[in-house]
Here is the input.
Amino acid sequence: MEKRLLKLKVNGQEYELYINPKTLLVEAIRDHIGLTGTKRGCETVSCGACTVTIDDMAVKSCSVLAVQAEGRHVRTVEGLEANGKLAPIQKSFLDHGSYQCGFCTPGMLMTSEAFLKENPTPTREEIKEGIEGNICRCTGYNSIVRAIEAVAKGNYKGE
Amino acid sequence: MIHDFTYLKPGTLKEALSMLADHKDECKIICGGQSLLIIMRQGLLVTDYLIDIKGLDELNYITYDEKQGLRMGATTTHRTVEKSKLIKEKYPVLVAVEGKLASIQVRNWGTIGGNLAHGDSSGDLAPTLIALGATIKLSSAKGSRTIPLEEFYTGLFETALNKDELVVEVQVPFVRPRTATAYKKFNLIENDQGIAGVAATVEVDQSRVCKDARIVLSNAGVTPIVAKGAEKVLIGKKLNEALLAEAAEAVAKEADPVSDIHASEEFRRHLVKVLTKRIVKQAWEEAIR
Here is the structure.
């Protein structure tokens, strides 16, 4: 199969990849660029572990072709931290112990980040609806909701 | 594993239609791909060419006027429909349905054209749009035709699309006064695909008698099913529990569900019966309001 050149912008950086067009975005990010924070989970658009943002929209990177992200800005969990400082949502997850095994965390963080950008002052119910596309197999949802709530309440402003 | 394919990305609808005409026997259209990529990965679908129309902004629109009703382009995302103030005001049922469709991630990337063309009978959008009286516009390099959405579904994951056609637009007529549409699916996890679902439109006259009705079943057969017998039960009558029960019995007869890992045939028949009572009542009460 004919490979093609793909220019992909991930976390502000331009990458030039030489890929088969069937390459999924999650494969491009993990296997070609080497950013392994984004996880491959169910691969059937169910679990949300592979969530990244494209132009600030949360999407499941297991179900987007890498070529479809060309000309757009992809952000992964590695892009949340800036200048060695964790993003508020990361800090809050840390403070609230919002992980058990940690596998869902990158996806949860990216979904939360996009969700809070869209709705900065959500209710508890809205937060739960907001992370509906992400499964925590350890069922540690309460601490995850608390962490998002804390950011929404402004507890991490100026962090 | 996904089989190799040649990726084609048209810049315009015209270009897309000409690519489709060139490769009609060996190609597949991808828009959002939220269903397509799953079945491709499972090896259920193999194609030589994949034509990606997601980037076609000329099909990404929502327009409305009282004469023509609502028009939505095929590449409009679910999330755009969900967040549209216009649709919330004029067709609130669509916003409600979208809010319970899969997850935010899927709604951000998935498109209404892709959803409808995929032809999954467990979809929520098709039965709701059929209940609203929607039509669908199909185009090929030779021209366009518009057909009732009800006639678009011909079999299990099969549609009336010819090999050289693609879905370009969904049209929903103006909602008449004293008319309301409601939809409800039953599932174990909210936002999951429905184990069975029912969409209903009820139009009443000034004395609250049912003037017209539409009942459409989701995941109760290989295509969305229009329960015409049940509709006849309602027309010319006033709302009461006995009438709802009679319509529900008719729906259970018209449903043609299969048994699978989610539910048995009997359970699905039971579900459409219960949902019909609730949803027809809800639509009726909203129509009277």
